[in-house]
Amino acid sequence: MKGVSRVAIAGLGPIGSRVAKALDQGIDGLELVAVSAANIDKHAGWLNKLNRFPTVLPIEALADVADIVIECAPSRLLRSIVAPVLGRGRTAVVLSVGALLENEDLIALAKAHSGQIVVPTGALIGLDAMTAAAVGEIHSVRMITRKPVGGLAGAPYLAEQNINIEGIKTPLKVFAGTAREAAKGFPANLNVAVALSLAGIGADRTLVEIWADPTVTRNTHRIEVDSDSARFSMTIENVPSENPRTGLITALSVIACLRKLHAPLRIGT
Predict the structure, then answer these.
(1) How are the residues of the chain apportioned to helix, strand and coil, as percentages rounded to the nearest 5?
(2) Which class in CATH covers the domain with range 5-122+249-260?
(3) Is 221 annotated in the active site?
(4) pLDDT, block means (10 residues), the chain with 269 residues
(5) Where in the chain are the domains?
(6) pTM for the predicted model, two decimal places
(7) Identified catalytic residue from 43, 139, 221, 262
């Protein structure tokens, strides 16, 4: 990729705001040109401190001005943000990975128009190992997630199953099933499971356990993989961002992903 790529950000929560500030401070070959947020006035304080105030646009219009659009918005907005980007043959960096399972035709749209969907590593360790193992044969993938109670509060699955986690004193397993089911029941929590499944053996064969755990203060994911090339397990404990459902490392992963685009040395698959 040559020249300067124009970047837009949809959503200015903990992830989007940190990425915007990093772009403003300077990432080689990239320029922040536009942002979109439900309430832009809420972010005026820090936006006004940027070296260059980006254009504020509706989410559907970001594709008109940017080569790369970073989706950091609620999952229900994924399609309206990403489809125009892919239809123009551009790049969409997607954080609401779980929503891709309900919008799988976006992959075909990207292919038809020479666009690209990029999923950063985010809160998940080991995606490089998973993608490598997937070139061969993966026999099984299992992920066990433990989150502080506040990180799971409000999940649709808990309401549907009438599971009350408020005030629990010991760890409680609240879900066991596939990555597809986890993404539907915990849309704000289990993007990591979907990313893992897309890199490996799919959303219907990737197994997930979710625990509400009052004894932990970090979002913890343990991954166990058995394949014909390797057997490996990984554990990561992510420090929550201002939003307890999202790890701080997710924003840093997006910044690292952007830095790779024009880097003279690129590490990792």
Answers:
(1) 40, 25, 35
(2) alpha beta
(3) yes
(4) 86 95 96 96 96 96 98 94 97 94 95 96 81 96 94 93 95 97 89 91 97 93 95 88 73 93 84
(5) 5-122+249-260, 127-244
(6) 0.88
(7) 221
